[in-house]
Design goal:
Blueprint lengths: L32 H31 L8 H24 L2 H20 L3 H29 L5 H10 L2 H17 L3 H20 L1 H7 L10 H25 L8 H20 L11 H19 L2 H7 L5 H22 L9 H23 L6 H26 L6 H30 L7 H22 L8
Helix pairs in contact: 1-4, 1-5, 1-6, 1-7, 1-13, 2-3, 2-4, 2-9, 2-16, 3-4, 3-7, 4-16, 5-13, 5-15, 6-13, 9-10, 9-16, 11-14, 11-15, 11-16, 11-17, 12-13, 13-15, 14-15, 14-17, 16-17
Length: 480
């Protein structure tokens, strides 16, 4: 049994009789409805956790005496997510996406429960690490399901719906997290995630037959057992290297120390291992798939390196409440949904790479506005408008890159390609947050006097975002 496919469109040839192509099914047509709902449920849970935690973290950092190591609470999850991403690519190529989906949801739920129960920052970080491993397994497996269970013509709309699944969590997550934190405790923000994870797991179990059927007829992966084992070990190496970078920079001081040396060793490790898990030519923006990967890296590096510290700046420098800071993040998230919806339109078929460059330009513009609002002490609520521009750029760019990555590879290699794309995605987030965290830790004085620190680190990330424009122009083959 194979997944339903629409009949191919037929056109007129000479005097041949005209045939009208059957209407193309939608993402929520009967053949795909329950599968689409299951995927949306998964993304919604992960999105809520990410947005809610961003709002609750200032309070959690204060209670656990970890303000100086604030960025580590985010980057450690991304580090283990790197490992999950690589392992999921291997696992999906060998056994299909279902095992990775099951394991990922269990680990994600357990990790969130541990975070809510932690009495020390070390235990909190352990919980974040377990949750990150689960999230990595889930995301890659979800991409494989999209690549195999949906026809190519539907994939842009699927990614548009998936991105739109961030809207409700992004709108409700920050204010709900702020209310929960001030009414009860930041711990409840993590505990409340566990129940939806169980519901999403039940949804996947209910559609396991359709997911498994989509794998039938897919050719074997081009990677053999030895290559899969090599990829898994490289995943361990890249996660360990990223962890070294984060541990070495989370409380960085402007002097040489053992901690600084560990950070440098981690950077070297990333430089040696990451290129082996990404398409050749990624770091020099070779045309085609390599430029897809580097564009994804640059987008997440600049965006998440910036947005992670915006709540801390609003609370500590501008005196806003957690609820107000969360509302600003929520409004900004609308842009991501809008950008994703635009890229899902059929008019962009065959020229989707242009949206990547436009996305990079919008993100750069939004980040410049964030810097100006912070430096000149303008009304802090203007940051919401700046984040709408940033989010629109991210929606245009990331969803388009997801479609392009699957279009440029065969179904047999969707597992490894999805793994590479998510690796670039999360590696960008890790290094963006680590770089911002290193600057913040090195220059931080006391709350209320850190405006120059935020301006410095966000200006650097703006330059990174501007490079996306260049990468987007190198995705399409050179015109003769």
């Amino acid at each position: 049994m194979s997944s339903p496919r629409p009949a191919p469109e037929q056109v007129d040839v000479g005097d041949a009789p005209t045939r009208v192509a059957p209407p193309r099914p939608g993402v929520f047509a009967p053949a795909y409805a329950l599968l689409s709902v299951a995927l949306v449920a998964l993304i919604t849970v992960i999105a809520f956790e990410g947005m809610a935690v961003s709002t609750a973290m200032p309070e959690a950092a204060r209670e656990l005496d970890a303000v100086r190591s604030y960025g580590l609470a985010f980057s450690v999850m991304l580090t283990t997510q790197l490992l999950g991403i690589v392992l999921a690519g291997v696992w999906a190529d060998r056994a299909g996406p279902l095992p990775s989906l099951y394991a990922g949801q269990l680990l994600f739920g357990i990790g969130c429960a541990v975070c809510g129960s932690s009495g020390s920052f070390g235990l909190f970080l352990a919980g974040r690490g377990v949750a990150g491993l689960g999230a990595g397994l889930i995301i890659v497996a979800g991409y494989v399901v999209i690549g195999r269970a949906y026809p190519e013509s539907l994939r842009p709309k699927v990614f548009s719906v998936i991105s739109a699944a961030w809207v409700l969590p992004s709108l409700l997550g920050p204010p709900v997290a702020a209310w929960v934190t001030t009414t009860w405790s930041w711990r409840w923000v993590f505990w409340l995630v566990v129940a939806p994870v169980v519901v999403a797991l039940l949804a996947v179990v209910a559609r396991r037959g359709q997911i498994a059927a989509a794998d039938e007829g897919v050719a074997a992966s081009g990677r053999d057992h030895r290559q899969h084992a090599r990829a898994a070990w490289l995943g361990v190496a890249i996660a360990a290297s990223a962890g070294a970078v984060q541990w070495g920079t989370h409380s960085l001081e402007l002097r040489w120390s053992a901690q600084t040396l560990v950070a440098l060793v981690g950077v070297v490790g990333l430089g040696l291992s990451a290129p082996l898990l990404l398409p050749p030519g990624t770091w020099v923006m070779r045309r085609g798939l390599p430029s897809v990967m580097v564009a994804r890296f640059l987008l997440t590096c600049s965006f998440f390196g910036t947005i992670t510290y915006i709540p801390l700046m609003l609370v500590n420098e501008r005196g806003l409440s957690l609820g107000a800071a969360g509302t600003i993040l929520a409004v900004g998230s609308l842009g991501w949904s809008a950008g994703s919806w635009v890229q899902g339109r059929d008019r962009w078929a065959g020229r989707r790479e242009r949206l990547v460059s436009v996305g990079g330009a919008l993100l750069s513009t939004g980040l410049v506005a964030v810097v100006a609002i912070t430096h000149f002490a303008w009304n802090p609520y203007l940051i919401a408008l700046a984040l709408v521009a940033c989010g629109t750029g991210m929606g245009l760019g990331t969803a388009s890159l997801s479609v392009l990555s699957l279009t440029l590879t065969s179904p047999a290699d969707h597992g490894s390609t999805s793994s590479s794309l998510q690796l670039a995605d999360v590696l960008g987030s890790v290094l963006g947050i680590a770089a911002a965290g290193a600057v913040f830790a090195a220059l931080h004085t006391v709350a209320g006097r850190d405006v120059p620190v935020y301006v410095t680190m966000w200006l650097g990330l703006t330059v990174v975002a501007a490079l996306v424009v260049v990468a987007g122009r190198r995705i399409a083959p050179r015109q003769p």
